[in-house]
Amino acid sequence: METTNQKTTAALLHFSAMTQYFFPLGNFIFPIIIWAIAKKDAAYVDHHGRQAVNFQLSLLLYTLILCFISIPIFIFTIFKNVPVNAIINDENFVFNGHNFNIENITGIVVVGLTAVFIFIMLKAAEFFLVIYATIKAANGELYKYPLTINFIKAENKNTLKNEMPEPSQA
Predict the structure, then answer these.
(1) What is the pTM of this model?
(2) Which are the contacts of 3, defined by CB distance < 8 A and separation ≥ 6?
């Protein structure tokens, strides 16, 4: 049975990921600090700490993949529509409807826009899933985020004790 203190700590672990909106990398720093301090006190807090950190690391990986897809596509699209003479001769160039029209939109641009849309949906899902996990933790339920890669696996303390050599008798 989880104590009220353990439930509150686990809920705070999940909700501390919202600090990303106030501090850069707050969604990693604060959950890791809280988890590192409280994980040895209860397996319940340890479980929620691992879930929160694994979820944030998974989102970072998904975001990096989307950036590697969409940023080069947009750079390619912009430079494809800018005249080379304007770049070489240092001329002023104005983006207008003449340069960007429906004929210049290719399949690769659609892929880039799809990646941006997925990123926006990923951030919205993160927001609501963090709130949902906070509520579950506060209610004393174990929660596992969907689509999460387990970067930090649970330590099996019995296995660790069995693997340690016995002290030698001298």
Answers:
(1) 0.78
(2) 42
